[in-house]
Amino acid sequence: QVRLVESGGGLVQAGGSLRLSCAASGGIFSTKTITWHRQAPGKQRELVAAVTSGGSTNYADSVKGRFTISRDNAKNTVYLQMSSLKPEDTAVYYCYAGFGNWGQGTQVTVTS
After folding, report:
1. pLDDT of amino acid 49
2. 34 closest CA partner among 82, 86, 73
3. Measured between alpha carbons, how far is 66 from 82 in angstroms, rounded to an integer?
4. DSSP code of 102?
5. How far apart, in whole angstroms, are the C-alpha atoms of residue 20 and residue 92?
6. Residue 98, Ramachandran bin (φ over 0: left; ψ between -120 and 50: alpha; else beta)
């Protein structure tokens, strides 16, 4: 069982940047694909970005060119660098390691 803890959320103006971190403990982190998801009020949770154990990445069309996902297996941590933030990026951001292993989420609020 992998335990995930997100951090780095906050309040930022449109056009600003934030870096989210997802720290993992337990399990074999380096072999897992890790994904970031977000859920805005009244909306379904959606996939934002993914990074495989080999470092391949994939992004939702809405964040391509603005967000970058990366991982540091030595630190058991996955990052989501978010730039050129928009008010529509406002949501709770979660990381996920498969098999029902979700973090508790971190709030990102982007003001116009």
Report:
1. 98
2. 73
3. 6
4. B
5. 11
6. left
Residue type, position 103, single letter: G
CB 106 within 8 A of CB 92: yes
The Cα–Cα gap between 63 and 21 comes to 17
Compute the distance between CA of residue 24 and CA of residue 80 in angstroms, rounded to an integer.
14
**Long-range Cβ pairs for the range 8-12 (8 Å, 24+):** 8/106, 9/92, 9/93, 9/106, 9/107, 9/108, 10/107, 10/108, 10/109, 11/109, 11/111, 12/85, 12/108, 12/109, 12/110, 12/111
Residues in the chain: 112
Predicted confidence (pLDDT) per residue in 2-36, tens digit = 899 999 999 999 999 999 999 998 878 888 999 99
Tell me the backbone φ, ψ of residue 32, rounded to 5 degrees: -100, 140
